[in-house]
């Protein structure tokens, strides 16, 4: 799955679409794959516990 981080909303965002999920011991040892369909955009808000409290 492909996700992008949106700094403005402090969220991970994934676009709707068809994806292939890969399962394996590591990236060079994929043991199974499965199709996955996301019907709408998915957004996960991040916790800001590590956010600096002043500009860097």
Question: What does the model show?
Answer:
This protein has about 55 residues and is an all-beta fold. The protein has one domain (about 5-45). Helices cover about 0% and strands about 50% of the residues. The protein contains no helices and 5 strands. The strands form 2 sheets. Strands 1-2-5 form a 3-stranded antiparallel beta sheet, with no helix packed on it. A hairpin with a 5-residue loop joins strand 3 (about 15-25) and strand 4. The model has no long low-confidence stretch (mean pLDDT about 90).
Strand order of the largest sheet: 1-2-5
Please state the CA-atom Rg, rounded to the nearest Å. 16 Å
Q: How many strands, which pairing sense, and closed or not: the largest β-sheet?
A: 3 strands, antiparallel
Secondary-structure element pattern, one letter each: EEEEE
Q: Could you give the count of β-strands? A: 5
Helix content: under 10%
* Termini separation: 31 Å
Query: Which parts are unreliable, with pLDDT below 50 for 5 consecutive residues or more?
Result: none
């Amino acid at each position: 799955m492909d996700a992008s981080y949106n700094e403005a909303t402090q969220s991970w965002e994934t676009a709707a679409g068809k994806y292939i999920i890969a399962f394996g011991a590591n990236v060079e040892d994929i043991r199974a794959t499965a199709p996955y369909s996301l019907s709408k955009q998915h957004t996960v808000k991040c916790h800001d516990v590590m956010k600096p409290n002043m500009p860097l």
